[in-house]
Amino acid sequence: SKNESNPAAVFCFPEQERHETGSCNICLNIIKPDWASLTLGVFVCQACSLLHRSIPHISRVKAVHETWDGGEVELMAAMGNGAAKAKYEQKVPAFYYRPTHSDCKMLREQWIRAKYERNEFEFIEKQEPYSAGNGIEGFLWKRGRDNGQFLSRKFVLSEREGALKYFNKQDARDPKAVMKIETLNATFQPAKIGNPCGLQITYLKDNSTRNIFVYHSDAKEMVDWFNAIRAARFHYLQVAFPGASDEELVPKLTRNFMKEGFMEKTGPKHTEGFKKRWFTMDDRRLMYFKDPLDAYARGEVFIGSKENSYTVLSGLPPTTQGHHWNHGITIVTPDRKFLFACETEAEQRDWIAAFQRVINRPMRPQEYAVEAHFKHKP
Fold first, then answer.
1. 197 and 190 in contact (C-beta within 8 Å)?
2. Which phi and psi (to 5°) does residue 368 adopt?
3. Torsion over CA of 94, 190, 359 and 321, rounded to 10 degrees?
């Protein structure tokens, strides 16, 4: 609507000029964004508008409901989210992680800076060497397995060797651990690790999950490590599955955990007392830990599909003994029943939904081999 006393002013940004704003330009949140960057000509959601304010030399933010003049409207109309995407994202590598509204603040902010401040996706020469398969090396703060202290450790990711390694001493010749790219995963865990740049790296050793918790004081450095791991995984999978398209490979690069939190559990005889444990649902692996930052799981449970006689039930068998939280869950497998208890009904509902999503999904051929390994564990 126009201001009659000042025809150049606009109190409400014209609806016809907002036809491209079905989602935020940054985090893809499917809402009609109520904020805009005047300098970049894009509409963003409220959460991402706060991140744009952190780069005022690049982006000047304004609310859609504020007073606009004709020149500002013309600028937005000339660019818009679609044109901005075509300009600033024209050379995004397939492996590069595009954050969504559910990702941590640091990951979204570095995506903004990569696009608009460093122009990494307009000019290939501005991208980091790991994009070309050169790996990455440097120092990260790693949490010690025994004392819980974070200490500086040298990390080397080599695509040629197919592994991520870290060394306890700067001049050490032999690595403390070798993590094969084949089983490597990385996910940002700022709340769990207690650092805004906290990254959890997992890998398989003897078909059991191992955790490493790291961070770096520089957010860009940490995101570079994350995307370097994705690049290494991408190039590995391209060789392993030569006929697969980028769209098929990208979802396999890294994954967030389906669900995490505390539950109580009892043993296989269902006569032992219930113990509080931290549980992580990683694809079909349900792992439990004494502490959320433990390097090794106390145990792992394979969750198969309903076609293979896996079921999740609300509640516990009436014969269950011992004191436990009130909201039980029973997972039925071909071999035994696993009993868990949640503190709240909401947690019980969320865990059951997570289990159900996995059980409803048919098993892939390679998952049968994983299931067989679990069945033959001592």
1. yes
2. -65, -35
3. 170
Q: Where do runs of H (alpha helix) occur along 194-341?
A: 219-240, 246-249
Strands 2-3 and 6-10: antiparallel
In one-letter notation, the amino acid at residue 22 is G
Give this prediction's pTM: 0.89
Give the domain ranges of the chain: 2-124, 128-252, 259-375
Residue 21 pLDDT exceeds 80: no
Query: What's the confidence (pLDDT) of residue 377?
Result: 65
In CATH, the number for domain 259-375 is 2.30.29.30
How far apart, in whole angstroms, are the C-alpha atoms of residue 143 and residue 295?
9
- Within 10 angstroms of residue 217's Cβ, the number of other Cβ atoms is 11
The beta strands (E) that lie in the chain are given as 2-3, 6-10, 35-37, 42-44, 61-63, 68-69, 136-143, 150-158, 163-167, 177-180, 185-188, 199-205, 208-215, 259-265, 275-282, 285-289, 299-302, 311-314, 327-332, 337-342
Could you tell me the two tokens for 184? 């490597």
> Do the domains 2-124 and 128-252 sit in the same CATH topology, yes or no?
no
From the number of C-beta atoms within 10 Å of its C-beta (0-12, 13-18, 19+), residue 285 rates as buried
**Which of 80, 69, 67 has the alpha carbon at shortest distance from 17?**
80
Three-state secondary structure string covering 296-318: ECCEEEECCCHHHCCEEEECCCC
Q: Where are the alpha helices (DSSP H) in 126-201?
A: 190-193
Residue range 128-252, CATH number: 2.30.29.30
Domain formed by 2-124, architecture: Orthogonal Bundle (1.10)
Tell me the per-residue pLDDT of 71-98, one tens digit each, with 9 for 90 and over: 888 888 888 888 888 999 999 999 999 9
Q: Each residue of 240-255: pLDDT tens digit?
A: 999 999 999 999 999 9
Which two three-digit tokens encode residue 202? 């997992």
CA 287 – CA 229 distance, rounded (Å): 23
Token duo for residue 130: 């790991």
Longest dimension (CA), the chain: 82
